[in-house]
Amino acid sequence: MQSVKLAASALAIAAVSASAAAARDNVQVAGSSTVLPYASIVAEAFGENFDFPTPVVESGGSSAGLKRFCEGVGENTIDIANASRAIREKEIKACADAGVTDIIEVRIGYDGIVFASQKTGPEFTAFEPADIYNALAAEVLVDGEMTANPYTTWAEFNGDLPDVEIAAFIPGTKHGTREVFEEKVLLQGCEDTGAMEAMMAGGMSEDDAEGACMAVRTDGKSVDIDGDYTETLARIDSNPNGIGVFGLAFYENNTDKLKVATMGGVQPTTESIAAGEYPVSRPLFFYIKKAHIGVIPGLKEYAEFFVADEIAGPDGPLANYGLVSDPELAETQSKVADEEVMGSNM
Amino acid sequence: MTDATSQGAARPRTSLTAADKRTQRRNAAEKRFRLYGLAAIGAGMFFLVVLLSSIIGNGIGAFQQTFIEVPVYLDPAKLDKNGNRDPAEMAKVSTFGYNPLIQDSLYQLVQDKGIATEYEDGGDMKALISASAAAQLRDRVLANPDLVGETVEFEILAASRVDGYLKDRVTRDSITEDKNIDAGHLDLVDALLEDGTVHKSFNLAFITGSDASESRPEQAGLGVSMLGSLFMMLVVLFLALPIGVAASIYLEEFAPQNKFTDFIEVNISNLAAVPSIVFGILGLAAFIQFAHLPQSAPLVGGLTLTLMTLPTIVISTRASLKAVPPSIRDAALGVGASKMQSVFHHVLPLAMPGILTGTIIGLAQALGETAPLLLIGMVGYIATNYPDGIISGFMSPNSAMPAQIYEWAKRADPAYYERAWGGIIILLVFLLVMNVIAIVLRRKFERRW
User: Which of A115, A198, B19, B59 pairs as cysteine with B421 (C-beta 3.0–4.6 A)?
Assistant: First the structure.
């Protein structure tokens, strides 16, 4: 009997405290693991400088974050979704269906995607998109014909590259990074090698050809990494011939283990990305639910603090960590200050 | 027939002192089997030693941290322009306003000590100082505004690269392409190390502190997530123990033997083998999406882990109830006790050591569990604020020890790697203590019949 009473009272306590929690006083953020380091740096500084509690930042990937963002409006949904890509039409619609209509889009800066290998490994120092395409695509152009990718070493299609087994570790499909990798590297390489043209000449529509360009070989030479960059780093560490895809910030924190390759002849640095010379970069975003501003204390202050010059500017802690700051930051700041929602100026 | 055999093949002569071929073979087989067993134990011990030495070797560094002692001049012109010494007014100066003060003070210190350096102003000292120093200074000043205008001795954290240099994680070779620190900075560290301005000491903040962002691993600690784990374990203990014990007593002592109870029994055994991530999905659906409990709260984590721990407790409780001999029950019933009295006065006290042991093992299992917490939002940059009280301990967002370790292990800065191993040491100590308690309880109170 005693134990039944105990259980009952424990449940009662749980119920009481559940209703007490109705007033959430901290900002909740979830989404891209690429944005997570930046968001946590901002959240920490925010907690130090304001009287609001430190926001909670979770990761899980851009798509997962936006999915949770679009679950609805209310205190048990997140306030901000971090994303390493722009929100998709489909997601805006899903949001609208759940009642999340006014979304503020904030671009915080740019991030470079780099190709790196073991510091003491073979000389992978310069890549072109075409090299990556030839190494990793499911079908490539050989002697004017599209065939299933026959290459097993890098030197087979480009004599300048080391004669070692192809082994690449690329981000899995739930990562926003994958999309950029497909569009800016694989698709570009597909066009450069003439494979795209060949496919369209073979009677494929443009969309189908693009899809075929972005298909990655499945014979084990290319490995999808669903975890974080640390997992990619561990794979590279144990495989001297491995090539991994990393964020610029991650590479800059691990320069003692990794060496980076140029892409299209350009060295990836914050400067070359800011200047638009390095081809593989993408904007980073976060999305705010306007309905939560004024309800969740500190939400707007957090957003304004995030894009403030002293944080996201070229000399701020984010740039220091590896973010390429946005030249149009002032515009973003006024957008946040005015709570300008998406679609209002189109 | 018998004659034929005894004559045809003569029975081999056997001796009592010398073993024949067959006995030798059997003896050899036994010896080999013993060796296999020894080899298995040896392999196990070998892996244990490798595991423990790699954990301790990698993680012990996290318990030491590098500090810099620097006198900082708290410039009134920067911190309190109006001169009112009003904390509310001074709070407008953010941590970014404090950074130059520390950097300039450190530069001044280097100059005063006459250390030759290629650097020309305080800004170049940034690489040595942890980003947490400004917040430390600001908190101190806001708590005591009268300090403004004075020169105050501060013990600030050194940046993670400097800390790594003292721990041999960062070398002059490894920083050639590192834009966070230069060889000149390391020369400075060497010089400051000699006169004791830079020193390494025990890092209590690692055990008591809160999580820190990616830019300052030197500040990160496990304290807040330890509290998160504690609150979760309280929930698990106060829910799983009574529910589990009640369920097992009913099933073992009162329930009739029929298809239905068999069905329940099979399901309990199955539940004990269900992967823990499944309980995470269940917790997300039931507690967060349906019951609207807050995300990332230790209460939800505890409820989810309760579901996971229940089968373990039920199974071990039933086993220890079964181990109480029927004669005890018969004797109690024989002197006129009711069924319930016989259970609560006689069977349960005798089964208690077994139940407690099972519960502690279940708790230890729950303490080390990460997978379900992934789904209910307890992994991330979360464990940053100490809870304000008991209620907020259960309700406000927090992480748990294993989740925090997992989070550290995937961060970019290599300094977090060391902290992840250090966290594992602390977690192992907790698990060890819990298991020792379980063994002591069993040794002390268990009765054999």
Answer: B59
- CA-closest candidate to residue A279, choices A110, A105, A89: A110
Q: Which chain B residues touch A37 with a CB distance below 8 Å?
A: 213-215, 411-412
> Would the CB atoms of A48 and B382 count as touching at under 8 Å?
no
Contacts of A101 (CB under 8 A, 6+ apart): A95, A291
The dihedral built from the CA positions of residue B204, A57, A60 and B230, taken in this order, carries a sign that is positive
Question: φ and ψ at A147, to 5 degrees?
Answer: -135, 160
Instruction: Check the CA dihedral A326-A330-A334-A337 and report its sign.
Output: positive
* Residues of chain B neighbouring A321 (CB-CB closer than 8 A): 214-215
Same fold, A22-110+283-337 and A112-281: yes
Residue ranges with strand state E in B59-179: 64-73, 151-157
Please check whether residue B158 is in contact with residue B130, taking contact to mean a CB–CB distance below 8 angstroms. yes
Q: What length does chain B have?
A: 449
* pLDDT attached to residue A173: 80
Confidence band of B31 (pLDDT split at 50, 70, 90): very high
> What is the pLDDT confidence band of residue B449, given thresholds at 50, 70 and 90?
low
Tell me the average pLDDT across B172-182. Answer: 83
- The pLDDT tens digits of the residues spanning A261-304 come to 999 889 998 888 888 889 888 889 999 999 999 899 999 999 99
Amino acid at B254: F
Domains of chain B: 64-202 (no CATH), 223-445 (1.10.3720.10)
Tell whether B435 is within 8 A of chain A (Cβ). no
Q: Which residues of chain A have pLDDT under 50?
A: 1, 12, 15-22, 345-346
pLDDT per position as a tens digit, B245-301? 999 999 999 999 899 999 999 999 999 889 999 999 999 889 988 888 888 899 999
**Rounded (10°) angle between helices B414-445 and B21-59:** 130
Pairing of the two strands A28-31 and A80-83: parallel
Question: Are A7 and B245 in contact (CB < 8 Å)?
Answer: no
CATH class name, domain A22-110+283-337: alpha beta
Shortest Cα distance from A325 to chain B (angstroms)?
A: 17
For residue B23, which amino acid is it? T
Contacts of A10 (CB under 8 A, 6+ apart): B235, B238, B239, B242
Mean pLDDT of chain B: 89
What's the whole-number mean pLDDT along residues B360-371?
A: 92
Report residue B233 as tokens.
């374990």
Q: What is the DSSP letter of A150?
A: -
User: How many whole angstroms from its chain centre is CA B246?
Assistant: 30
Give how far Cα B414 sits from Cα of A158, A334, B285, Å. 35, 37, 36
**Distance between CA A157 and CA B424 in Å, rounded?**
46
Q: Which chain B residues are within 8 Å of A58, Cβ to Cβ?
A: 296, 377, 379-382
Going by C-beta distance under 8 Å and a sequence separation of 6 or more, which residues neighbour residue B357? B316, B320, B438, B439, B441, B442
Look at residue A1 in the predicted model and tell me its pLDDT: 46
What CATH class is the domain A112-281? alpha beta
Q: Model pTM?
A: 0.84
A119 SS3 class: coil
At position B351, the amino acid (one-letter code) is A
Which sign does the torsion angle of CA A260, A263, A266, A268 carry? negative
Token pair for B424: 């594992």
Helix axes A36-49, B95-112, angle to 10 degrees: 90
Place of tokens 């020309």: B120
Chain A residues near residue B290 by CB distance under 8 angstroms: none
State whether residue B294 sits within 8 Å of chain A by CB.
Answer: yes
- Residue B394 sits at the chain A interface (C-beta within 8 Å): yes
Spans of all domains in chain A: 22-110+283-337, 112-281
